[in-house]
Amino acid sequence: MSDASIFPLDRPPMTSNLPESSAPSDAVLDAADASAPAGRKRPKPGERRVQILQALATMLEQPGADRVTTAALAARLDVSEAALYRHFASKAQMFEALIEFIEQSVFGLIHQLNDREPDPVLRSRRLVTLLMQFGEKNPGMARVMVGDALVYENERLQQRMNLFFDKVESTLRQNLREVAVLNGTATPTVDAAADASVVTAFCVGRLQRFARSGFKRLPSENLDHGLAVLLPVLHA
Fold first, then answer.
1. Which domains does the chain have, with CATH numbers?
2. What CA–CA distance (Å, rounded) separates 65 from 55?
3. What pLDDT score was predicted for residue 233?
4. pLDDT digit string (tens) for 200-229?
5. 83 conformational bin, left if phi > 0, alpha if psi -120 to 50, beta if neither
6. Weakly modelled stretches of the chain, pLDDT under 70
């Protein structure tokens, strides 16, 4: 798998990436959109829910954007706030759906890396690269990943993103333990844990700088040099 195969959150494809358990029933959707003006085309089952998430992600992409309110989100979609709550019980649930998309997308690619790349250094480098590319191509998601978009939201959302990076670090730790063993270090587990912590902090820092620079400082900036320093290639 090439690093270029990372997927942006292109607006239409997001439908297929949402968890099936999140899809509302036809009956709920019919009730939700029954009050729409006669001239407005009623969304297909599940489509309104996706539109809400796409609108939220787009609003988060605005540099320097303040907290996204349900009133602003409803205005962007030209619906009432009550219409939003017919599809999501709360704004926190909307963010949870975005986080689930991030988790499924990123960890799906990480699993592919684990299956296809035998070299633990290259596997780790490509993991970092795909994480940077995902954030770069999905600025709104990057703000969620580093917590900037979650500051005034439910605390459990930030805890879930913390767990996301804990899992990334755990994967790196497994990879780097292989590297430490190949290098013949005396304490491979300890070394791997320390190295994985540094690499994960690098990833979070790059994404955070991207979000806080108004998306001007790209995560991929001089990435090859950074990877060469953090994850040097093994020599036979």
1. 3-91 (no CATH), 92-230 (1.10.357.10)
2. 14
3. 84
4. 999 999 999 999 999 999 999 999 999 999
5. alpha
6. 1-45, 64-65, 235-236
- Structure-block tokens of residue 230: 């953090």
**The 3-state secondary structure of the chain, one letter per residue:** CCHHHCCCCCCCCHHHHCCHHHCCCHHHHHHHHCCCCCCCCCCCCCHHHHHHHHHHHHHHCCCCCCCCCHHHHHHHHCCCHHHHHCCCCCHHHHHHHHHHHHHHHHHHHHHHHHHHCCCHHHHHHHHHHHHHHHHHHCHHHHHHHCCHHHCCCCHHHHHHHHHHHHHHHHHHHHHHHHHHHHHCCCCHHHHHHHHHHHHHHHHHHHHHHHHHCCCCCCCCCCHHHHHHHHCCCCCC
CA–CA dist 61, 64 (Å, integer): 9
For residue 213, what are the CA distances in angstroms to 38, 62, 216? 44, 12, 5
What pLDDT, on the 0 to 100 scale, is given for residue 235?
Answer: 56
Residue 147 tokens read as 């917590």
CB 164 within 8 A of CB 102: yes
Give 59's contacts (C-beta < 8 A, 6+ positions apart): 65, 68, 72, 73, 76, 140
Looking at residue 65, its pLDDT comes to 65
Q: What is the pLDDT of residue 5?
A: 36
Q: Tokens standing for 9? A: 């959150």
Phi-psi region of 78 (alpha: psi -120 to 50; beta: other; left: phi over 0): left
215 touches 63 (CB < 8 A): yes
pTM higher than 0.90, yes or no?
A: no
